[in-house]
Write a structure and sequence with these properties.
alpha/beta; TIM Barrel; 3 domains; eight-stranded mixed β-sheet; 8 helices; about 25% helix; about 25% strand; globular
């Protein structure tokens, strides 16, 4: 929908409470807010007894990125996508790699959905990626942008922590083409203590997304916190039970924000990859200098069908979605 800058955009998914309070129903925190109070995500506020999306259109970052940077390795490989993100998040991860825009107030600039779509078209982007912090707290804006983008033949990508209630997710998914979802650990205690969130919510939403959109998973591996063999086995079994072709990205952690654990050793990431590769066909290692762990192999003949150097795609051996060597379905979209 077209709009000029709106200071107090009507929020979706909320209900009235008592004594002028409102309950946000966007994510499982279900914040109850009285007059003038703001939700934990910093994007919703009770104004005059109604819930408003005070972050609508306010953008911290806008860049043209390789799709591989999201990371999405099996969705239009080698393409570039306009990437935007809001200020705020509904989790409080003490290791956040983007804490300056997720946990702190950060300067923003307003862009209408039409401006974003036109900019994407002018730059030859395949679409729009909602990313950098947590795009689900930008629900109203992402929905409007996604509809405008779809109307112009652009794709929509979510890079998300997966923390949202079922009804809004079901409303949004028809407009989304691909998602990279963070599974930060397979230990509910980790989510509760380190992220102030719920593992079960994330796993439920991964299940809802798989089969509806292209899904890839990222796991940021942190030394001493989520790097046990047991965790890697549980993550592998969960994803293999959904679809063994789901790409899994183990990402290297470096100390940031409030977390002081040492950088993840390469050996830990290789151990994680070895465990996951027993049941999953596409396992990658990110945030490291080596390219050896970032090649896509055919799920059947195991020859390299996408060759990468960092975020650059050097060669694609896929024809009409099939392996160029043996003809097996590759599971790669847009190649």
């Amino acid at each position: 929908m077209a709009c000029a800058k709106v200071d107090y955009y009507p929020a979706a998914h909320w209900r009235r409470g008592t004594k002028g309070g409102v309950e946000c129903r966007l994510c499982p925190f279900n914040c109850v807010l009285f007059e003038g109070k703001t939700g934990i995500c910093k994007g919703k506020k009770n104004i005059g007894g109604e819930l408003k999306a005070i972050n609508y259109g306010l953008t911290t970052s806008m860049n043209m990125d390789p799709i591989e940077k999201k990371p999405l390795y099996h969705f239009f490989p080698g393409s570039r996508i306009l990437s935007i993100g809001p200020n705020g998040c509904n989790l409080k991860c003490n290791f956040c790699q983007n804490y300056n825009i997720s946990q702190e107030d950060y300067p923003t600039r307003f862009f209408s959905p039409e401006e974003v779509v036109n900019f994407a078209l002018s730059r030859g982007s395949i679409g729009i990626a909602y990313t950098y912090t947590e795009p689900l707290i930008w629900f109203e804006y992402v929905l409007d942008c996604s509809k405008a983008a779809r109307a112009k033949g652009l794709v929509n990508v979510l890079v998300t922590n997966g923390v949202i209630n079922p009804d809004p997710l079901d409303e949004l998914i028809p407009w989304i083409d691909a998602m990279n979802i963070d599974i930060k650990s397979m230990d509910g205690r980790f989510y509760k203590k380190i992220c102030k969130g719920s593992l079960d919510v994330v796993l439920d939403n991964v299940r809802r997304a798989v089969g509806s959109v292209h899904v890839e998973i990222t796991n940021l591996v942190i030394s001493g916190l989520n790097d046990s063999d047991d965790m890697f086995f549980k993550l592998t079994d969960f994803l293999a039970g959904l679809d063994p072709l789901i790409p899994l990205h183990f990402s290297r952690y470096h100390p940031d924000y409030q977390q002081t654990a040492p950088p993840t050793p390469l050996e830990t990431l290789e151990r994680a990859s070895a465990i996951a590769s027993k049941k999953l066909k596409h396992v990658f290692i990110g945030n490291i200098a080596s390219d050896n762990a970032n090649q896509t192999l055919c799920p059947k003949c195991r020859k390299v069908i996408i060759e990468r150097s960092g975020y650059t795609v050097d060669k694609v051996e896929i024809e009409n979605g099939k392996c160029g060597f043996c003809g097996a379905e590759s599971g790669v979209i847009g190649a």
